[in-house]
């Protein structure tokens, strides 16, 4: 049995209290949310925090709320809540697509969106989703609140722009009425991390051509969205030839490494194939949304 090194423990009562505790106890202190990434790392002694600040009582971070042209999601929202929200599925089908293939119900019942993004595992599905949706992170610390576009949030594998005395509090998703989105993942078995996955968002013009688009890839060494995809797709009608061009661009941009989940060529092939599939699905959904809006 693996047992973590000893640590002290505090249970924060609100955001201000959590930040005060982080500030008081210094950089060897870690926040614990669902604990599904941090605790396994502690058991393996890959992480040895001296103190944990438990944020599970911070109900103020547990909400999904539409606010004008933005969907606000608190950092403590569990995977299950995102999966089961009809509003999330309607506005951002990519989130439900991704949540359906994240781990298993046990992990989804505890794991949080904030923990997923802060863990910054290269195979984390919600990081790609947030990149593609151009989400904005709301971070609070001793100096107050700041907003950070997702493109600047991740600093590399397991590294984010959240300072040791800061808390990720919310994620803001801009709503575009004529957009839709999709996510697809290949995993070795149900509930496993991605061999490769792809996410796409597409906005259609009144004439049915693509007004804007973004594609992101998971677990192939690429942070942020694939460069050049929006420029390739803008102004052109959706279709198989176009999706194939985008797939080739994504495969060329991917930087996979060989590991127990598969060789480089296989992952590059998946980047190509999954890009085509998510663009196809996002375009079909966007066309449906457009038809419904009249
Ligand atoms: C068996 C298993 C399979 C999994 N499969 C997948 C998968 O297929 N796809 C996938 O995407 N994920 C997968 N996960 C990870 C899962 O999504 C976790 O829930 C997630 O990585 C971490 O969320 P958490 O709330 O448990 O974070 P925690 O483990 O509590 O924290 C993770 C890190 O984030 C920090 N942190 C947490 N919340 C905040 C905050 N609000 N502000 C600042 N820092 C914070 C912590 O200090 C810690 O460093 C899997 C996990 C397990 C155990």
UniProtKB/TrEMBL annotation:
PROSITE patterns: FAD_PCMH
Gene Ontology molecular function terms on file: FAD binding; oxidoreductase activity
Keyword Oxidoreductase: yes
InterPro entries: CO_DH_flav_C, CO_DH_flav_C_dom_sf, Diverse_Substr_Oxidored, FAD-bd_PCMH, FAD-bd_PCMH-like_sf, FAD-bd_PCMH_sub1, FAD-bd_PCMH_sub2, Mopterin_DH_FAD-bd
A Pfam entry, by short name: CO_deh_flav_C
Keywords per UniProt: FAD, Flavoprotein, Oxidoreductase
Top-level lineage group: Bacteria
Keyword ATP-binding found: no
All copies of domain FAD-binding PCMH-type, residue ranges: 2-178
Protein's recorded name: Xanthine dehydrogenase family protein subunit M
